[in-house]
Amino acid sequence: MSQSDIGEFLGIMQTVYSRYERGAGTIPIEHLLKLADLYNVSTDYMLGRTNLRNYDEK
Fold first, then answer.
1. DSSP state string for 27-47
2. What is the pLDDT of residue 7?
3. Per-residue pLDDT averaged across 40-52, rounded?
4. Whole-number Å distance between alpha carbons of 46 and 36
5. How far apart are CA 45 and CA 31, in angstroms?
6. Angle (nearest 5°) at CA 54 between 13 and 12
7. Which residues, at least 6 apart from 28, have a Cβ–Cβ distance to it below 8 Å?
């Protein structure tokens, strides 16, 4: 997916999403949750707190 696609999915502009990817802006929790659902991963995985993609992995 392109940044524009994800921006549209989140209801934000591509430039805002680009800032999230670069770490130049703080991602709101509601966007983090939507992205975790989209990619079928845990929020802990997205935040670098675990190497397990989701909680079902052992």
1. PPHHHHHHHHHHHT--HHHHT
2. 97
3. 91
4. 7
5. 15
6. 5
7. none
